[in-house]
Amino acid sequence: MAMKGDNSDAGGVAERAKATLEFCVNNGFFREVGPNRYVWAHDKIQQAAYDLIPLPKRDSYHLLVGSRIFINASPSELKDMIYTVVDNMNNGSKLIQSTDQRHDAASLNLIA
What we know:
The chain is mainly alpha-helical. The protein has helices spanning 10-26, 43-51, 55-72, 75-91, 99-111; strands at 30-34, 37-40.
């Protein structure tokens, strides 16, 4: 299910994201494990989705995912997701150009 439309319409984007998650849960791609928390229903489904990402873009994808979780997570959420953040940021570390972001990545590695 593609998410199309005007990105300035935050309500519409949120509704489409919710509909997409609902579609994925109803069709067995994700399982809901808590309020607004989802996991892949099977590792083969996750691997198939990952394989759709072109190899040259995977490092930037990892850096984006790790950075977004780090920036948006509360301290308690970050504590629960530290390994996910560190793993993703490490996979994209060769693309880090900012000294501040390198420092953040190193600090997170120490915490993990």
